[in-house]
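Q: Structure tokens for this one, please.
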Amino acid sequence: MIYELRTYHCAPGRLPALNARFESITLKFWEKYGIRQVGFWTTLVGQSNHALTYMLQWESLAEREEKWNAFASDPEWIAKRTETEAQAAIVERIENQILTPTAYSALR
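A: Here is the predicted structure, written as tokens:
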């Protein structure tokens, strides 16, 4: 099992739009493609409160590549994402890490 940690750094004031997009649009597409989330977090204390961090769970890098690419290229998803950003961009930058648990991790 591997985990993907992604942090989306939002434009000021746009975190509510990103949360709404995940809740009402993105998660439905992830379900369609079998993308499994571990959890989502906002920053309570830290460098910025304009960030959304989430973790995904994958069986392998091959599974990630197959499912993520299918999701990212879905024409309906692209249209919905574009629609949510019609007035202004939501995400300024994304940080992404692929993690593998240690032998003593609770998540294995």
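A few notes: The first helix runs from residue 15 to 33. Residues 2-88 form a domain with the Alpha-Beta Plaits fold (CATH 3.30.70.100).
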